Structure formats: C-alpha cells, structure tokens
Amino acid sequence: MTAYDNISVEEYAGGVTVIDADFHREHMAGCYLVEAGSEVAFIEVGTNSSTPRLMKVMEARGWKPEDVSHVIVTHVHLDHAGGAGSLMQLLPEATLLAHPYGARHMIDPARLEAGARGVYGDEMFDRVYGQLIPVDESRVRIMEDGDELTLGNRQLHFIDTPGHARHHFCVHDSLTNGWFTGDTFGLSYREFDTEKGAFLFPTTTPVQFDPEPLKQSVRRLVANEPDCMYLTHYGRVKDVQRLAKKMIEGVDKLAGFGEKYNDSPSRTQKIEAAMTEWLMGGLRDHGVKLTDEECLHLLRADVKLNTAGIEFWLDHRKP
Questions:
Q1: Do 225 and 96 fall within a single domain?
Q2: Segment 122-176, tens digit of pLDDT
Q3: What is the CATH number of the domain that holds 223?
Q4: pTM of the entire structure?
Q5: Are residues 147 and 272 in the same domain?
Q6: I want to staple 198 with a disulfide (CB 3.0 to 4.6 A). Which of 57, 140, 237, 276 is the partner?
Q7: Which of 25-29, 91-95, 154-158, 266-270 has the lowest mean pLDDT?
Q8: pLDDT mean over 223-246
Q9: Radius of gyration of the chain (CA)
C-alpha cells in the first residue's frame, strides 16, 4: 500500500492502481487509474470529494490532465459516478463512457440527484455528495453490450451486467485478464482478509436489485476464466471461481431471507437480524479475528442498504 499525501493507493501489476475514494471510511470505495502506453483512463470516479485525490495521484504518477482519454463509470450510483462531472471539467480530452440506461443521468443529473436526496435527506446528500455537475452530451459515449475500446496497449471489453442495477456494465481488461466489476461481483473489504483469502458478499442496494439476473451476470463474468476482479468495494481479488460460488450462494441466501420474512409485521428488523447473523457466522468461519463490535461497525451500513434493496424487490417484483 502506497500513500500520496495521505491518500491510500495500491498499485497492481499491469498498470492498474486503486485509489481510495474518501467515501465514509478508508478502503470502503475505490477508483482505478489504468495506465496504457501514452494514455490513461479512470474507471469509477467516486464522489465530488474524490476528484482532488484522483487528480493528485494522476499527476504524481507523471500524467497531465490532457493525457486522460477516458473516464468510465460502471453504473450511476453516486459512490461510483457522483464525481463524474467535476472530474470531467478538469480533463479536457476525456470522453465519459456510460451504460445506455445511465448516460442520460450523467448528461442531466437532476432526476438522479432528486432521487438520492429523497433517500438520504438534504443534509447528508450535501455533506457526502455535493451538487452533481452535468457532463456535456458531446463528451459522453454509450457503451453497448459487447462493445470494445482500445486503450493504449490493452483492449477493454464491455458487457451488460444487470442484477445490481439495470444501468450496470462490467469492463474486461485484456492485459491483466481482469474484470472491473463495479458492484456486480459484490463487496470484499480488505479488513476481512485471512489466510483463506478474501471474504465476499453481495450488495443488494435499492432500487433495482433482482436476484436471477445478478446470478446470471456473475456466471457470465467468470465464464472466460478471469485471473482477477477489480472491485469498487474494495480492490483486487483473485480466486475468482471460489468467490463466484460464494456470491451466487449469497444472493440466494439474501433473497431467501426476504421471502421468509416477507409477511412479517417486523419484516425489516427480521431481515436485518438474519443477514447480520449470516454474515457474522461467515466471518468467523473465514477466520476473521476482529471483535464482534469491529465487524458490525464495518457491516452495519451494508446490512441496512441490502435490506432496503431486498424489500424494494419484494414489493415491486412481477408476480
């Protein structure tokens, strides 16, 4: 782990660097700097507060703003794409690549911002995300399923990966045989690593979680035997076939909690309790030595968001 002016950074082989996005706590969310010959790209941009960090690390590694050819967001949830407008203002040659269902929200983020303010409230939204800045339509390129992009010495391949959100794609990097997975391949916090490897679990946040498409997206990601996954939350993980199995099992488990308690008058509390018990049991089986209090501190926000997403799915799924 390297630090640039106290910014946590980890450099991987093949010119891929994860930069801590300064989102709630260290190592909760990351953005990737991908260096490719004479050009460079960002994959995921975090929030507005991430922008100065990304620029600082980019410049410390010898790049100028005009060297950045592309900014890529896997989907438009604000911890992944909230800072796109502020970053694009500083990168005169960059094109923003977005999903067909997400691009319009980068061009005109008014609905995206209104929805998020409704979820988080004005005070928290202003503190965490700030004002969303539009990106000029002429600088936005839509990437369809199967599209490819040559980035210097590497080829990037884009596939549609619904399940976490309908506006989600993942990006395969030919040079490292790794996928930039956004939220499709779940969450894996480095604090939970043990000699058994990474601990991974799904993210089922509102409002478009759908278990069957998500499992199919995971299967599609691992079908070509990738060597690694670059998670936004957080960093590079290997042993992808084991983790894919855990991810699919986890999606079934979390959806099952929703089904089990759907008719309960205390549905929210019961799903949260079942999810917490399942996660804590998994951490202990994995050999995590953190105290219960430390584990719960790291998991609490995800349990609440996951529960909200499961409940939205229960209430809006087609019969």
A1: yes
A2: 999 999 999 999 999 999 999 999 999 999 999 999 999 999 999 999 999 999 9
A3: 3.60.15.10
A4: 0.95
A5: no
A6: 237
A7: 25-29
A8: 98
A9: 19
Residues 6+ apart with CB under 8 A from 192: 198, 199, 283, 286, 288, 290, 295, 298
Indicate whether 5 pLDDT > 80. no
Number of domains in the chain: 2
Question: What's CA 88's distance to the chain center, in Å?
Answer: 19
The predicted structure's pLDDT at residue 11: 96
Mean residue pLDDT of the chain comes to 96
In terms of domains, do 89 and 231 share one? Answer: yes
Q: How many Å apart are CA 298 and CA 192, to the nearest integer?
A: 10
Which residues are CB-contacts of 126 (< 8 A; sequence separation ≥ 6)? none
* Residue finishing a domain among 245, 271, 288: 245
Give the C-alpha separation, 171 to 97, whole Å: 11
Structure tokens, 65: 């703003």
Q: Say yes or no: 31 and 94 in one domain.
A: yes
Domain end (from 245, 261, 278): 245
Residue (of 155, 186, 169) closest to 36 by Cα position? 155
Q: What is the DSSP string of 226-276?
A: -SEEEETTTEEE--HHHHHHHHHHHHHHHHHHHHHHTT-TTHHHHHHHHHH
In the prediction, which pLDDT does 303 show? Answer: 98
What residues contact 168, with CB distance under 8 A and at least 6 apart? 74, 75, 99, 102, 160, 161, 162, 182, 183, 184, 217
Length of the chain: 319
The predicted pLDDT at position 26 comes to 92
240 and 252 assigned to the same domain: no
**Pair 34, 173: CB distance under 8 Å:** yes
Range of the domain at 296: 248-316
